[in-house]
Records
---
Amino acid sequence: MPEPSPGSRPAPRPTLEAVAERAGVSRATVSRVVNGGAGVRRPLAERVRRAVEDLGYVPNHAARSLVTRRTGAVGVIIAEPEVRIFSDPFFSQQIRGISRELTAQDTQLVLLLVDGPGDYDRIGRYLAGGHVDGALAFSLHTDDPIPALVRRAALPTVFGGRPGWTAGADGQAVPYVDADNRGGARAAVRYLCGLGRRRIAHIGGPPDQTSATDRLDGYRDVLPDAEPELVAEGAFTEESGARAMERLLLRCPDLDAVFAANDLMASGALGVLKARGRSVPDDVALVGFDDIDPVARTTDPPLTTVRQDVEGQGRLMARLLLRGLDRQREGGPAPEPVITPTTLVRRASA
Amino acid sequence: MPEPSPGSRPAPRPTLEAVAERAGVSRATVSRVVNGGAGVRRPLAERVRRAVEDLGYVPNHAARSLVTRRTGAVGVIIAEPEVRIFSDPFFSQQIRGISRELTAQDTQLVLLLVDGPGDYDRIGRYLAGGHVDGALAFSLHTDDPIPALVRRAALPTVFGGRPGWTAGADGQAVPYVDADNRGGARAAVRYLCGLGRRRIAHIGGPPDQTSATDRLDGYRDVLPDAEPELVAEGAFTEESGARAMERLLLRCPDLDAVFAANDLMASGALGVLKARGRSVPDDVALVGFDDIDPVARTTDPPLTTVRQDVEGQGRLMARLLLRGLDRQREGGPAPEPVITPTTLVRRASA
DNA sequence: GTGAAAGCGCTAACAT
DNA sequence: ATGTTAGCGCTTTCAC
């Protein structure tokens, strides 16, 4: 029986050579056909394709990589502070977007989880080791060691979210994809103004994340004269939003609107508002940010919020990197940052 | 200035050859040193190591892979029905465990997200393409196409969770890692019995997942004569647990205990019980399964539940695969399944 | 348009 | 213990 018995070695995969022989052509011709078939006459190409099919030929990636000097893989770095990413729908969507785009470009996604401070070393070596053609990283905090790593590895990298340090040490622009946080915040606050609200508070995120500071900046763009008491700092968690809301209520009992820097905090704030007997949106109008999937539409009332296309951002990150690879290979410039638009989604909370 | 100007090509990486020349030895010797240095005299090895250091030599992975026929990477397949995995703490922990183990073994994690039925084809080609040495897959449903793929690709694979089909088409055992679902369920139900409960109901998971059927089997092991009315089917979601609880209450108003096949459903059931005025644990004792992180300890009352070490399972999957790789390479047998123990965690709900 | 030939950087026999 | 040598499977000039 030709059935491989449990103890037999795996069958050796057919090589270009084998295909060439079967098709009665040279290896070079097969190679051309396999790689798009440019410059090969139809009948020949057909014969080759048939031979490939018959033999079940699959190109050997290592051999190809050895000569092309491309791995066809990119690393996605997920740093320690973000280990929870997988529980965060935000990241999961972004990864999904990245995966979609990479897949479409026949590029592999190598997941690099940073699992502790000691891991940065390992990741750095890996990146420098030429295992991947480029990297994607999420730059959440200003003191992240990742940027230095990829810089040292001289590896093309695109960041998700505007990095805290805007330019590299050598003045090169750092490529990143980010939502228009500032513009979205402006839209939210303007909307509240348009509703006739006069005492508009803000619950901000942690000041070491640009998404938080950018949204705060947007708030200030519209309300440059807002009293400092109207701004409370949270940590992007529901709990922290609740605490911030309590402080705000204490400091400014007369507030009539709140713009929270994300939906989670908005949800926390909503709970406190209701518990304190303030009706939303009648007494206090509430706007969030992100339009995060279950949260924003399942609160009571559902949240008016600023939507950003997270999956699209992921796709964009991958696309930017892949485009940049070809260019940088030729010594071209790194790709420019991309800011994706946001839209205000009206629901019942404002 | 030796600083690479923005328009310069990336510096070519030093090769074995360069190191050999600098150290005044042959390529073979350098190779030996780089790969552990067995059989090379101290002083020589030292000289080589210094040269490696000086030149910043990093082995070319493609070249090595070409000759060793190992890629040093494994694919982690995540199928469409589980796209939410990233929001599921269960999977995120498992991935973390996998990542930890692979990292420790210097093996890369290539993430393969199946993004639709059409993707199975692509994944199949990829797996057959020799890009990875093995695969890790989660076999949630009985009709999953993944098993067929890896089988066709003749790729060593370890499953997370017992697959629905216990043996391969050729009678080979399928390697997997799973919690002792049946034993854990038995422990839970026995515990309820020990509490003096006499009408113990069960909320089961979807019957096409072995984790659900195994837990049901465990329940039946202890209560072989339980009336069918005491068993309701859920879908492992909080909502489905609530619905199942409602049905149970209708059919068996006199029940005094519930064993739910996971914590999410237990949480849903808890809500219904409280809404119906049944106090937990006084009127109805409740036990869950998984000890899922925020859920089990934050319900009111906190859940008594069956804990499984999910991260450990992930690590085990990776370890099993890597060990199996070496063996199977020599035509050895696939690794045996591993069942990890569960422990009953007593909290306030039972 | 097609083929011949020269490597890509490395490991593993095989010599010594 | 170390060096020599022959490829691994592929792409890519360069002739024809």
---
Amino acid sequence: MRNEHLRCRLMSSQTPPSTSSEIPQTPSEYEAQRRKNRDAITALGLQPYGRRTEGLSSVAQAKSAYDPVADEDAAKNGKTPGFVDRRPTTKIAGRVVLSRDNGKLIWMNLRDHTGDIQIAVSQRDVSATEFSLAKLLDLSDVVVAEGRLMKTRTGEITVWCTSLSIGCKSLVPPPAKHEGLTDQEIRYRQRYVDLWANPETLRTFLLRSSIVSRMRQFLVQHGYTEVETPMLQALAGGAAARPFITKMNALNINLYMRIAPELYLKRLLVGGMPKVFEINRNFRNEGLDKQHNPEFTMLEAYHAFGDVETVMNLTESLIRDSAVGIAEQVVGPGAPPVLPFGDLTIDYGRPFERIAYPDLFERAMGYPITNIDRARKDLRERLPQHAAQAEKADPALVINELFEAFAEGLVDHARPTFITDYPAAISPLTRAKPDNPNLADRADLFIAGMEIAPHYTELNDPDVQESRFREQLSALEPGKGAEESTFRTMDHDFIRALKVGMPPAGGMGLGVDRLAMLLTNQRTIRDVVLFPLMRPEE
RNA sequence: GAGGGUGUAGCUCAGUCGGUAGAGCAGCGGCCUUUUAAGCCGCGGGUCCAGGGUUCGAGUCCCUGCGCCCUCACCA
């Protein structure tokens, strides 16, 4: 009953308004003209918003079905009596991207997600109604064309229509046919236009989709279990970042959008799931730039009885497999995983470089990280804008300023590189190396200068974890304290979980958007996020 | 947060020294049965991002604000 009612309402809303007073806003000249054409299509007895259509081929399938022998035969013998036309027929749906009306013969180019193809609508070969429809079509309408596959005199594969119908009327004029849609703002705000008007955009997102599904497949094949943990959390933990705050009415409490799934995934290790991963969104209340969108997709994976080395190997093989998948789609089967990113050519097939933090520091500065006096002096002299840092109590921060300024730049951007052996002092949530308590069992993967994935040997001593939490809380800067202490709270349940006992484990987090940027050669995160965050219109 | 760029027709863009708002495509009317960004003839189309100022006169110069892009900084 209820469905009936809904259906009636839906159907009535599909009926075009008969009076102009029902048109919601003043239409542009273009929209008015298209509404007029739509009404004329309705007047022909056709439904301008189409209906279910079976037996559709993609444009790519149609093109590959073209039969040159049959076409030549038809061209040569088509007019002889008793001729049997063996050219294959096809039925395709696509958006009208070009139209050339020669009077009694209309050429149009249709586009679907696989490409463009030309169709011809001849007055001689379709019904009078269908030919009238063809005359009433506008650029960016979606049509269904059926006919035989042939080549024109100039050699272009064409569907010579025997029937034509409309899938939907477009009331909005398309972007310039030659330039496409170039306005960045409209590309992001109206992605639905960008996707059809710029085939490169659709291609990028199809590639991104294939990366993510192939990653899932890879992880499952390697024995990892995919899980989903809370996105709404009473405590936003697992990373040092500011969360989005939201409110739950029923319980009258504040909740936070998660900044990381880490603490929940570790609880699953406690529960006895040995290898888990999650691919999902994290939310961080920070600024936007080429590498940051407030919501972004993160892969986190944990491996019980593994360590940092275990997950480094996982990341390396996972990224290599992703690159192989992309190379096969972009270049062809068997293509090596070598992909361009801007001016770089990145070979994902070679073993990833591994450089220890202290070694890289010494290579850049000429002295070891233990030479704190020298480091303080360097910071004052070479980075005066960070002079205040030099007076800070913790030497590791001094070292790290210099490291970021001078050492990170030595990493070859074209070569995926793990930086290992970070100072323990700047890695508060990581276990120390078994043979050196001053170094953390942590490795960060950099590609093209971007931080792609951190790896850790996870803390599993509840007492150590609790004291690290406390240190983090007490280290809050006075100015930020009031605000940040509202969401930085001790996660007692997580400590309780560690008391139950978490096996030793390796864990990693991989920025899926950044990996998608690298593999699809897009310079900004906004070009690999379908609907990037924009300031609201108006 | 700082600096730079940009905003003009549905789209892509010109617009000189401050002096009647322009082009191509798209649209409308007409012609055209093998076109390739089809072609030919004709026609219409503007809140020059918004607000203020200077000026006889502002798309143009000045100020303020907003959007987008780029670089840097911050954050991670």
